[in-house]
Amino acid sequence: xxxxxxxxxxxxxxxxxxxxxxxxxxxxxxxxxxxxxxxxxxxxxxxxxxxxxxxxxxxxxxxxxxxxxxxxxxxxxxxxxxxxxxxxxxxxxxxxxxxxxxxxxxxxxxxxxxxxxxxxxxxxxxxxxxxxxxxxxxxxxxxxxxxxxxxxxxxxxxxxxxxxxxxxxxxxxxxxxxxxxxxxxxxxxxxxxxxxxxxxxxxxxxxxxxxxxxxxxxxxxxxxxxxxxxxxxxxxxxxxxxxxxxxxxxxxxxxxxxxxxxxxxxxxxxxxxxxxxxxxxxxxxxxxxxxxxxxxxxxxxxxxxxxxxxxxxxxxxxxxxxxxxxxxxxxxxxxxxxxxxxxxxxxxxxxxxxxxxxxxxxxxxxxxxxxxx
Length: 373
Known about the structure:
By secondary structure, the protein is α/β, with parallel strands linked by helices. The protein has helices spanning 34-38, 93-100, 110-120, 137-146, 156-159, 186-194, 208-213, 232-243, 253-262, 356-372, and strands at 2-4, 9-10, 13-16, 20-28, 46-50, 54-55, 74-76, 79-80, 103-106, 123-128, 165-167, 175-180, 197-202, 218-221, 248-251, 265-282, 287-300, 306-308, 315-322, 328-333, 338-341. The protein has 2 domains: 2-146, Glucose Oxidase, domain 1 (3-Layer(bba) Sandwich), CATH 3.50.30; 156-372, Rossmann fold (3-Layer(aba) Sandwich). The chain is built from 10 helices and 21 strands.
């Protein structure tokens, strides 16, 4: 049974592990890429529903994991594949969910649930199967309404590495980058290494002084789950490193934290952007990119013109925005070396239209090093 906090109930079949799970119900519109979705740490604390009706036919493998484990709180599908048919498959989706203890549900009208979430917004929810399915409707609803809301939650400590580690640069070395792991994806680290960076991944608990003591050539903030409004310490860290002149690139959560560091606010979207086909305009080129998204919060900044940072970082402009709803999808600082995007240029899954942003970051770091010389 899927139970939403407004009392709506949807009956289906148990899928994956049996038991009870609670989280924020959201929908992802990608036709493919369910493995990357499941293993993206940004989905921690969320019960993810796939809008594509047929899920699981390509199974699961070790190559497409975006982290070491499945992070979703629960999984909702309409028609799970009964047969795995792909030459790269190593396991079935159902088996991986069960082994990871991820409670799921199948056989429900995902289109009806999606329409409801679009009108009512993302909300707390629960999946109840096995013995927990025998709880009364009132007991299940009470559990859902007692669960934590996403607003105000700081989840970076849940998903971040506890120990630092390093990926060596591939090809000609450009420099070193300190990556603050707020829920970083494997593909992001790989793209940075391919651009010639020694990638030093550090825990989210690191201090600004410790970052500067590493003497990296640049700083990168990753994607991650939770409310950017609850990450004051990371905002302070970023302000300190920006004032020290460290070049910066941020993705997703890293875009929201740059926005806050510059003096902008953030807010929760009604139902978020989660999918691999979001049209975004790059204002610098006039090019429309089809991009991969996974965010429930956004930066509150004017999409036209140039603003002055209230924190003393000079001029700032919105560099990208979503053509569906005008949500801010990128920030560019004109007087310091810092920029960010809300979406995922590493794709995984999704189109590769925005891979050039990693090249832009490399070029910015090289220009910074030339200036120092």
